[in-house]
Amino acid sequence: MSAQTINAPNGATNGAPHQNEKLPKELVDEMQAIFGKHPGYRTTHAKGLLVEGTFKPSEQARSLSIAPHFNNPSTPVLARFSVGGGLPHIADVDDNATPKGIAIRFEIDKHTHTDLICHSFNGFATRTGEDFLAFLQLLRAMKIAQFLLDKAKENHGDTSKEEENLKKAQMAFGTFLASHPSAATFVKAPKPNPFNYGTITYYEPNTHVLTNKDGKVTNVRYRLIPADGEHLHTDPEQLKKLGPNYLEDDLQQRFPQKPLIFTINAHIADPDDILDDATIAYKSTTFVPVGKLEIGKVASDNTARQQQIAFSPTPDKGGIEGIASSKDPLIQVRKGIYYISADQRRHEKQME
User: Fold this and answer.
1) DSSP 246
2) DSSP string covering 3-31
3) If you average pLDDT over residues 55-68, what whole number do you get?
4) Is the peptide bond before 76 cis (omega within 30 degrees of 0)?
5) Smallest Cα–Cα separation from 210: which of 18, 57, 51?
6) Cα–Cα distance, 187 to 142 (Å, whole number)
7) Cα–Cα distance between 189 and 293 in angstroms, integer?
């Protein structure tokens, strides 16, 4: 299968547009205001488990990139499965534990790695960090208004003021969703609960830029396709029977007899696909399988390692060649968020 390529300038390989330097911290603060501050844990996707495995590239992979893990026979990986939100002890089936996520570190050698971060929602809520901050602020205002109304009802007094405030907050949030269709799609999207972490598809929202040995540049977004197929719980009564940690419990019990296996597909952008907007899916129907990811072990010393490791949305951060970030503005914002969150938890003690 041939890969559509475009010129490097359009591929946006050398950094992102200028960002508001305060924005990542503002986003971290806002998310912690919503979920609470949980020392020693990630700001979002706080609940998760580190696992280990290997990646074996396909024959087609080397035609896309000179990256070592696309050319070596196999590469060890350290990955982290997680559920959405910033609550470290949230029930896996909770609607706020969506999307499910996987972060993968391809460990080329002691000094070189590259990361791939995906989640179970195809896209992102907003195109920019500024819009995501507005989304979070309006969401928090609505939650606060609802909380105050509930407290007023408990006191059996006049609740007309609280009801009016909630109505205003709901209207403001609704107005934002109306003007940001991708955010509305995110809010209204199904909240899937897979049989296990290996029975759901994961999507990389941002474009990566690959360069092969001939200097050809290809823009891609990745998809992780479960080898066992996609299997989701759809019966509400069955969901009630699942334990609060059923996804992690499965990981602790299944290895090594039942590894989780994914095919990693590179979704190849067409020349007219939009590369710098994670809310817009590629129109292209071209997919290239770049390899098989096999997870077969829960990592040792999990809690301590989770506090220290910081996956990055910028694939070239670990010194890799043949892969670079696109100019999608979300990438640099996410990079800042991940850095701040990692720096905080590395200097904190988990108290829960």
Assistant:
1) H
2) -----HHHHT-S--S---TTHHHHHHHHH
3) 97
4) no
5) 57
6) 14
7) 27
4-8, 162-166, 271-275: segment of lowest average pLDDT: 4-8
Residue 304 to residues 38, 143, 198, 294: CA-CA distances in angstroms? 15, 33, 24, 23
- Where in the chain does DSSP place strands (E)? 48-57, 75-82, 101-109, 112-119, 202-203, 208-211, 217-226, 260-268, 287-298, 323-325
Residue 156 falls in which region: left (phi positive, over 0), alpha (psi -120 to 50) or beta: left
H or E stretch covering 143: helix 129-154
d(CA 118, CA 219): 16
Alpha carbon distance 79, 298 (integer Å): 9
User: At residue 2, does pLDDT exceed 90?
Assistant: no
Cβ–Cβ < 8 Å for 209, 13: yes
DSSP state letters, 279-342: TS------EEEEEEEEEEEEPSSHHHHHHH----S-TTTTB-SSEEE-S-HHHHHHHHHHHHHH
User: Looking only at Cα atoms, what is the longest distance across the chain?
Assistant: 74
- CA distance linking residue 204 with residue 189, whole number of Å: 17
Q: Is the pTM of this model over 0.90?
A: yes
In the 8-state DSSP scheme, what is residue 352?
A: -
Beta bridge partners of 268: 220
- Which pLDDT does position 318 carry in this prediction? 87
Nearest to 83 by CA among 55, 119, 56, 117: 119
Q: What is the pLDDT of residue 322?
A: 97
Structural contact between residues 180 and 32, judged by C-beta atoms closer than 8 angstroms: no
Taking the C-alpha atoms of residue 289 and residue 275, their distance in angstroms, rounded to an integer, is: 20
d(CA 135, CA 183): 8
Note the pLDDT of residue 19: 56
Any idea which residue has 């910033």 for tokens? Answer: 86
Those residues whose C-beta lies under 8 Å from the C-beta of residue 28, and which sit 6 or more positions away, are 43, 337, 340, 341, 344
Q: Which of 306, 302, 323 is nearest to 314 (CA)?
A: 323
